[in-house]
Amino acid sequence: KAGVTQTPRYLIKTRGQQVTLSCSPISGHRSVSWYQQTPGQGLQFLFEYFSETQRNKGNFPGRFSGRQFSNSRSEMNVSTLELGDSALYLCASGKEAENSPLHFGNGTRLTVT
Amino acid sequence: QKEVEQDPGPLSVPEGAIVSLNCTYSNSAFQYFMWYRQYSRKGPELLMYTYSSGNKEDGRFTAQVDKSSKYISLFIRDSQPSDSATYLCAMSAWETSGSRLTFGEGTQLTVNP
Question: Which of A9, A34, A35, A104 to mutate to test the interface with B (most CBs of B within 10 A)?
């Protein structure tokens, strides 16, 4: 059974640009969450989607947005990139809407220069 | 004060040792507890998932939860060099609007041959 797939694995962008990251959950998983991982802050919750609806949102600025499609695939967008947005962005999927254990992909490493 | 506290280490042990990793938390609403292992350049891999106080065993791994003390542990028996990784504790509370994980900052473990 395929795991969570994230593309691309690596991205280099310039400050002020925007970026879109993609996530395909494990087959049958309907919940998709996004996390940001940095050395200083660790893993921080961005948002969660279930049935194409955002169910929960972390404490990030509006430049961070996401969406989920009818096939449960999800995208995350960051606009007007800042140097501090450099991080590993992780997608996780779960079977049910609430409190099922999350399974993570290998992430997209974003570098903003 | 962080909701979840985890000693970042680093922790270095000889092969075959018993490893004890710990987290404390302050939010009494947390009901679900997880341990993840993260290798360099990879996403977190789910090791253990539990939602009740007591012990849960899976092979060489034992997860222990003490809700009265707000303390969770992961024990690794007969540790192997392949166990060298960062170990993250994570927890969540039941929320009608979905779930979100709160992570410790991770403990970096090295098992020396």
Answer: A104
Query: Which residue is associated with the tokens 């919750």?
Result: A45
Q: What are phi and psi of A9, to 5 degrees?
A: -80, -35
User: Can you say whether the dihedral through the CA atoms of B75, B77, B81, B82 is positive or negative?
Assistant: negative
Please state the φ and ψ torsions of residue A29, each to the nearest 5 degrees: -85, 135
pLDDT tens digits, one per residue of B12-23: 999 999 999 999
Which of B31, B44, B98 lies closest to A55 in CB terms?
Answer: B98
A49-69 burial, b at 16+ Cβ within 10 Å, e below that, comes to bbeeeebbbeebeeebbbbbe
Q: Do B45 and A45 touch (CB under 8 A)?
A: no
| pLDDT tens string B59-97 | 999 999 999 999 999 999 999 999 999 999 999 886 655
| Identity at B13, one-letter amino acid code | V
CA distance A70 to chain B (A): 18
Phi-psi region of B69 (alpha: psi -120 to 50; beta: other; left: phi over 0): alpha
SS3 A43: strand
Q: Are A104 and B45 in contact (CB under 8 A)?
A: yes
How far does A29 lie from chain B, in Å, by closest CA? Answer: 14
Of B44, B41, B32, B54, nearest to B98 by C-alpha is B32
A26-61 per-position pLDDT tens digit: 999 999 999 999 998 999 999 999 989 998 899 999
